[in-house]
Amino acid sequence: MLGPDKILPAALCATAMLSPLAAAAQSAMPGYSPVFRYEDDFSYLADPAKRTDPLDAIKYVPLPIAPGAFVTFGLDDRERVEASRYALLGFGYKPAQAYDLHRLLLDADVHLGDARVFVQFGSELEAGRRPAPSPLDVDRFDLQQGFADYRLSAGPGSLVLRAGRQEMAYDEGAIIGVRDGPNVRLSFDGVRASYTDAASAIDAFAVRPVNVSPGVFDDGDLAGQSLYGIHATLTPPALRGFATDAFVYANTMPAVSFYPTTAPERTQTFGIRLRETSGGFDAAIGGIGQTGSYDGRDVLAYAAHANAGYTFQSLPMAPGFTLRGDVLSGSSDPGHGTVHTFNALYPNVAYSTEATIEAPANLIEPAFLVFAQPLASVRVQYIVEGLWRYSTADAFYVAPLVPLIPANRSKQRFTGV
Question: CA-CA to 384 of 20 to 30 Å: which in 1, 52, 56, 151?
Answer without folding.
Answer: 1
